[in-house]
Structures are given as structure tokens and as C-alpha cells.
Amino acid sequence: MFLVAIAVVTFFWPEEGPRGPKFTTKEKLASLMRATGIGGIVLITIGGIYTGLFTPVEAAGVGAFFALFMLIIRRKCTLPTLYDVSAETLKTTGMAFFILIGGQCVRALCLALPSARHHRRGHGRVGAGHLWHAGADPTGLCHSWNVH
After folding, report:
1. Please, are residues 124 and 114 in contact by the beta-carbon 8 Å criterion?
2. Fewer CB within 10 Å, N side or C side of the chain?
3. What is the DSSP string of the chain?
4. Alpha-carbon distance 134 to 117, whole Å?
């Protein structure tokens, strides 16, 4: 759909998509050869998922392995590069776990607060759980878990 939109805009307003520089066939082939590594990784991972060779999680591991393999083959895997990639991976993974653990903490809080059922049984105590049960939950999480 995006490509169709670009084609329509550049057809009616050619100045919105000016032509780029011309390249020789030799330059185009050299560029295509440089792109075969990532194309191979995509083919192996997506092909492996569709053929049932491995699951999406396993495909991620296979893709990471082949990306590292490509770096080593092309002699672009230096120690500082490997350190930077590992640090970014750890930051991303840490943030994902932070979000997951935070969600579990909010869930535990929702389950621990007194509910309206507790009040209906004659205990007479009104707490934050009653407000949340009445729809005042700022996150919307307690309602989705049917905490009563």
C-alpha cells in the first residue's frame, strides 16, 4: 500500500520524488552482492519458520548466530564492536524484563487490595480496592483481571 501511495504521488507530482544518481550495472551488482548476507539470514530464518524447522524463538537465535557469523567472515567483528552490540542487547533485554516485572508488581498490588466483595460481606472497610473496583483504576489492569 505504501509503494502504491509513492507511485501515485510521484506520478502526479514528479518533483516530490526526483530521480537519484545513475549507477552502472557493475555498481548495481556489487551492491546486490553486499546485500546477499542479510538476504540469506532472512531466507534462513523465515524459511525455517515456514518449513517448521524451528519456532520463531529458535529462528531469532539462528538469525543472531548467522549475523555474528557474517561479521566474522567479513572481518568486521572487532572486540569493541562485539562489546557495543552486547551492551545494547543487555540494555534492551533489561528494559523488557523491567516492564514485565513492573506489570507483575501492579498485578500483585491489584490482587492484594481489598475488593467490593469484601465490603459486601459486612466487613465495612472501604479502601483503595473499592475505588478501583468502581472504575477508578488508573491503569485499567485490575478490571481486566476480574479482581473482585
Report:
1. no
2. N
3. -HHHHHHHHHHH-GGGS-------HHHHHHHHHHTHHHHHHHHHHHHHHHHTSS-HHHHHHHHHHHHHHHHHHTT---HHHHHHHHHHHHHHHHHHHHHHHHHHHHHHHHHHS--HHHIIIII----HHHHIIIII-SSSHHHHTT--
4. 12
Provide the whole-model pTM: 0.51
The model's confidence at residue 84, banded by pLDDT at 50, 70 and 90, is very high
Give the integer Cα–Cα distance in Å for 109 and 103. 10
Residue with cell 530464518: 45
Residues 6+ apart with CB under 8 A from 38: 70
Give CA–CA dist 80/66, Å, rounded. Answer: 19
- Cell 524459511, residue? 47
User: What is d(CA 57, CA 71) in angstroms, rounded to the nearest whole number?
Assistant: 22
* Grid cell in block for residue 67: 549475523
Kindly report, residue by residue over 98-127, the tens digit of the pLDDT: 999 998 888 877 777 665 445 445 454 444
Q: Can you read off the three cell numbers belonging to residue 52? A: 517448521
